[in-house]
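Notebook entry, structure prediction.
Reason for the run: the old model in the group folder had no record of what sequence produced it. Starting over properly, with the input documented here first.
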Amino acid sequence: MSLLVPRKINWLGLAAFVAAVAFTLYAALAPGDDTAGLIPWDKAKHFIVFYGLTFLATMALPRSRYWKIGVVLLGFGVAIEILQGLPVIGRDADVFDIVADTCGIGFFFGPIIATQWMNRDG
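New structure, fully documented this time:
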């Protein structure tokens, strides 16, 4: 492996991303009141969390395609809702949480993709 080849993984970024994913999973599955805290609206929390996870994923994997990161994070959001829907967890699954997750991912990538599209030569 040549020293001139850019790394595909930013290990510090990956550690931060994995920690954020673990905390997100814990917070999503832990029993508790979703209205407590600084942001009482559940959908805003989903938007902010997935916006942040998308940022951390792009920092951890700078050479990955955006659509791959988006699909994996959306799959994570769907998995959370499926787990929350299990009776043993004691939480409520909501399809609109997935919509909020998707919006968080899209609002992060949207300006980046639009800028790249507008700056395309030709």
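Summary: The first helix runs from residue 11 to 29.
The old model has been moved to the deprecated folder.
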